[in-house]
């Protein structure tokens, strides 16, 4: 309310972090004021989409699906076509960073269209381990679970009623 915004947009992957943030936001502002954006890439597991839709169904919030493959592939082609060979682990990291940053571009675009703040879905454990992408999944207007360790997050998720299939899913 202090910022002048009444709505929130977040990236919903189908994992426990984004599901918990969705449940928290829906409880705080109501499901009609929440837009959950699903942003799969060509290699994203279909089960993730199903879990994301499970959250949307449980909350009754708005949702959009934005396929990021056509946005990401041109950049990945530039990375692969460089002069020097890239070790596969470095390529995986760089590819993941490109995808994370593209997702945040989509979220900030949707936040402008929906007149909403972007909610972050990263937790404290990820931040402490350096498991995040600057200007990607670490970028957000506010971070509802940013001070929660993963173990605390699971307890909050359980209390909020995040579906068991999501709680029991191994981290990606």
Write structural notes for this entry.
This protein is an alpha/beta fold. The chain is about 50% helix and about 10% strand. It has seven helices and four strands. Strands 3-2-1-4 form a four-stranded parallel β-sheet, sandwiched between helices. The mean pLDDT is about 95.
Beta-sheet strand percentage? Answer: 5-15%
Q: Which spans have pLDDT < 50 for at least 5 consecutive residues? A: none
**Element-by-element helix/strand order:** EHEHEHHEHHH
List the strand order in the largest sheet: 3-2-1-4
Q: What gyration radius follows from the Cα positions, in whole Å?
A: 16 Å
Overall average residue pLDDT: 94
Number of strands: 4
| Tally of helical segments | 7
Q: Could you describe the largest sheet, including whether it forms a barrel? A: 4 strands, parallel
Structural class: alpha/beta
Summary of the model, kept short:
With 172 residues, the chain is an alpha/beta fold.
Based on the model shown, name its key terms:
4-stranded parallel sheet, single chain, about 170 residues
List the SSEs and their pairings:
Layout: E1 8-11, H1 16-29, E2 34-38, H2 46-59, E3 62-65, H3 69-80, H4 88-114, E4 117-118, H5 124-129, H6 150-160, H7 164-167
Parallel strand pairs: 1-2, 1-4, 2-3
Helix pairs in contact: 1-6, 3-4
């Amino acid at each position: 309310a202090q910022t002048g915004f009444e709505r929130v947009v977040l990236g919903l992957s189908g994992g426990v972090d984004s599901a918990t943030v969705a449940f928290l936001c829906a409880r705080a502002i109501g499901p009609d004021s929440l837009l959950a954006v699903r942003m799969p890439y060509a290699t994203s597991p279909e089960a993730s989409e199903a879990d994301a839709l499970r959250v949307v169904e449980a909350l009754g919030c708005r949702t959009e699906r934005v396929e990021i493959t056509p946005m990401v592939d041109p950049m990945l082609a530039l990375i692969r076509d460089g002069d020097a060979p890239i070790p596969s682990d470095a390529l995986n990291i760089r590819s993941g960073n490109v995808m994370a940053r593209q997702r945040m571009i989509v979220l900030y675009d949707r936040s402008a269209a929906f007149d909403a703040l972007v909610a972050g879905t990263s937790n404290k454990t990820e931040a402490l381990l350096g498991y995040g992408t600057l200007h990607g999944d670490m970028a957000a207007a506010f971070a509802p679970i940013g001070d929660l360790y993963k173990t605390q997050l699971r307890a909050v998720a359980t209390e909020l009623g995040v579906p068991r299939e999501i709680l029991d899913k191994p981290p990606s």
